[in-house]
Amino acid sequence: MDEEKPNYKPWIVVAVGIVIFIAFLMWVLPIYTVWSSEMSGKAQLAEAEWNKKIQVEEAMANLESEKLNAQAEIERAKGMSEAIRIEGGALTPTYIQYLWVRQNKFNDKTTIYIPTEANLPILEANRMK
Prior knowledge:
Order of helices and strands: HH
Strand content: under 5%
Structural class: mainly alpha
Shape: rod-shaped
Distance between the termini: 125 Å
Radius of gyration: 42 Å
């Protein structure tokens, strides 16, 4: 009676393969974790630098805008100075009323401005009733 011995060789190969695979993972995972953290840090640094560049560009745009607004204000003042010179060199009450009306820019075409002593317009509130 010849008894066959069980063949353990394939199971031993599988067990050794699993042990080698686990050892490989134990060696690779820490290296991957460090590399992944480094890449994440580099990405955050790049994003922070990009945000800084955006803020600098916005500040430069605001500065340019303020410079242009200042130039526009200077030109407006020059125009006002020339208009006052043409008017006779003085701000008259009539001219001040004209400037007030012009500044208010009445959009309603039916608005009628009548200057009063207090410089307030009289509105026809009951006209449509």
